Amino acid sequence: MELKKLDVPTSSITEVKKSPMDVFAQARKAGTGVYIFNREKIAGVMLTKEQYEQLLEELTELRDKQYQPVERELPVPEELEELAAALRSVVAKGAVISARQLDERMVQLGFITKKTGFGGVTEMVKELGEVGKIIYQLRRRENHKTIYAEIVGDLEDLRRGTDRLVVRKVNLIER
Hints:
By secondary structure, this protein is α+β, with helices and mostly antiparallel strands. It has two domains: 10-66, YefM-like fold, CATH 3.40.1620; 78-174, no CATH class. The protein has helices at residues 13-18, 20-30, 49-66, 81-90, 99-108, 120-131; strands at 10-12, 34-38, 41-46, 96-98, 111-112, 133-138, 147-155, 164-174. The strands form two sheets. The chain has a five-stranded antiparallel beta sheet. Strand 6 and strand 7 (147-155) form a beta hairpin. The longest helix is centred in the N-terminal third of the chain and has 18 residues, at 49-66. Belongs to the phD/YefM antitoxin family. This is Prevent-host-death protein.
């Protein structure tokens, strides 16, 4: 069996113990982390402070792009603002989520959909594919009005037969 050669610098625990600054210099020179081996197994990776901070910054940027606040097309009545905030915390614009996870989160907030029981997720995905949204109804009534949540989105990848969707926006509607 042929071992793969790593395309990154490597060092040993012994070298780290002797001179950690040499390992940091190696990471700086290579522009990447240095894999640290202990008895032929990777024990960890050493990065410079700058490399670590750059990784954190990139991770934060990626998370910010993925989890933007829910975009609402319709204004939310003041008495529903608390519900809208709760909804924003569980369903974010741009998020990729499975229909099953979406349904679980919406049920936790007190919403229901007609698509329940065995095959419910399949029906939700079908509804999304046909009309571009999934409609939920709040179980309780507010001021004798019914509250609906429209989850507008797209199926992530039809070819794979997945139930994953990309949330485009969420509307709260009072009727």
